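Box S1 | Example of a co-folding query
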Amino acid sequence: MSGRTVLVRSDLNVPIDDGVVGDTFRITSSLATINEVRSRAQRVIVASHLGRPDGIDPALSMAPVAQVLGELGGFATVLAPGVIGTDVVDTIANAAEGDVVVLENTRFEAGETRNDPVMADGLADLTDIFVSDAFGTAHRAHASNVGIAERVPSVAGRLMASEIDAFDRLLLGRDRPYVVVMGGAKISDKLGVIEHLLPKVDLMLIGGGMCFTLLGAAGYDVGASLFEPSMVDTVGRLLDSEHGDKIVLPRDVIVADRFAADAEHRIVPIAEIPGDGIGLDIGPATVAQFSSAIVEAEAVFWNGPMGVFEWEAFRGGTEGIADAVASSDGYTVVGGGDSVAAIRMLGRQDDVTHVSSGGGAGLAMLEGATLPGIAVLERKDRDA
Ligand code: ADP
Ligand code: MG
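Box S1 (continued) | Returned holo structure for adenosine-5'-diphosphate
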């Protein structure tokens, strides 16, 4: 890399409110790669998308991200006047050694999400080497992660490599006992992951909103809880399938009288959910049961909060599971936007082996999908 220009595609898609960066997790996760490249390359360019702009949108400029990146990374950043083109080439050529040139939001270019060849050529013209580190977008074939990789020598960055290692290990499932904890809102979002992992695991513990469709299929009356009627037959077949008895459903839940932070609520066994009751968290007996399986496991993957953890009254289940995952001595991975937010909110992220920076990409891997952003690097590897 020495004497060369290197473009790093990071995932710096942080929450932005009124030009102010919210959670900096994705920025800090990207720094190891960027700093390593800085120590070895002559010129460093960092590219990322930010939000979903429809064309150029000043509210989604990379300016505040570039500033925070420099502050947290301890280096000077220069914001490029666009994503591709001669002005960008000039900015890169004129940057001082050690400075990091941050491109504007890659989605300001319409060609980005279409993986347009002209856009990919424009990105390739900026650099000698491409470092692919945006695991969070690896399930998309865009110009800034796939198109560019087809055009210049490319390698996976530190973060990308560590994410691939973590999900490969979960897919291999050699560590036993192997426990997966699934939660979150809807079963339809996560069915692919559950079906693909179920044969590989020892136990699949299910909480969150999705558990009620399963409980319904198992014959329980779930009252007014989140329920997906169109999924009942599918999940019923899953429960009756060869590996169905590995699925563990809650034995008690917290029911509320309405969907509100300050709703009246109480613990009930699952056989006693009232007709107008809304299940908004798993109950303490379930937390205890799930926790003992998690603590004894050699490998744990957790995705999806156990309840509406955004509201304090319904946070206990997610808190209990976060605590168990953090206390387990096994190999532990937390993935998913809201589950990662939950473990960080509870301050337990350092007690987990791997906190994934990519929600959808990790879940896509666990469904058994081939991710275009990873496949392109493997193709290049083989061809090299
Ligand atoms: P992740 O981002 O970790 O993959 P999801 O996006 O699938 O998780 O689900 C997170 C959402 O699920 C949260 O906003 C949470 O409030 C909601 N949720 C969890 N349990 C319930 C429930 N029992 N009823 C309704 N919503 C729930
Ligand atoms: Mg989510």
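The longest helix spans residues 25-40. The pocket of magnesium ion (ligand 2) is lined by residues 336-338 (CB under 6 Å).
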